[in-house]
Amino acid sequence: MTALRGRRLGHVVGLLACLAFCAAGVAMILGPLTALPFGSSRWDSPVTVLVGVISLAFFGAAGVPALVSGIRHAGRAVVIDARGLALEGRPAIPWPDVLDLSRAGSESRVQVTADAYEHDVRARPALTRWLFRLGRRASTIALPSVRDRSAEELLQLVRDCREHFVAGGEQPAELAADPGPRVRPVRPHPPEQARAGDRVVLRGSRGAMVAALLGALAFVALSLWIVAGMLGGRLSVDSPMELVTGGVIALVGIVFFGALGIPVLLRRIRHASEAIAWDARGVSIEGRGPVPWNDVHMVQPGRGELLLLVAPAAHAADLRSRWLLDRWMQRANRPFRGTALALPRIPGVSSAELAQWIASARDAHLGISNGTARG
Q1: Which residues cross the membrane (predicted)?
Q2: Residues 344 and 215 occupy one common structural domain
């Protein structure tokens, strides 16, 4: 095993910068809304509050946890062994999942399989995880900078280790012998604790949903605060730009996070103990269904998620069981998703395992012996 030290100073400087931006964001939110001295009256507008919210979310909720994690794991920023490549304390990426290595400007990147990318993203803080999925770059992960080794030397070392563990090439001199497993095993069947007779129940992450609910409530409270400030005269709406900005904040915060997000998250929390379940009748998703096995076509990967492709009649029945605004959003997404239902993420279960388990259950209940799913 080889452990390479990262550059802690760069993370510390970045953390201080993020904290400074967070302080500025808090001032831009609290200043106009509490009538604190903040300069000229032109600053007391929804635009100022919106910029403060964005600054606090990006630099505070996303940047600070990521940089703290980088500082914490700087002593072992890159760990290389037979299991794979581990970056800054996140789970190791198995060598067969490492597809390519490249440079993009001053950044070194590792291209991995979609499943390995999803595992790496899940190990990151919540908002950072969302930003990585939003800005997904063909399943590439940036390599951290390390001490006493240039970017080209690090890329060459990782490339040589992949060649050694996957293709049986010559072992790099920096790598000590490690008899550990080379490939992460994919479990062919769900664990026994998930079985109850003919029924299989997979638990979701209630903690993640509770955190998302708290975030939605915070956005709703902030939106109501801004609307109250506009109506009470604390926030100026002297220009069309300020009026439109205030309206957008109210619409996104109250309608999207409140009327749509909160009911959906409450339902997910309620059904987290049975996020995905199946038996002889079909597969159920967060209390909806079951979708009969005859209507289940296949499981396919989507953008950062796993999709269950079902028949149009089953998709329509699933829509009828949803909250009104959620139903409308799903219909708006139909040109992009078709008749696919998003499967919730299950802690400790990879996308490949979940897809294999559902496909095997479908084939078993329909009496298909060749193991292939209907397209």
Answers
A1: 12-35, 47-68, 208-231, 243-266
A2: no
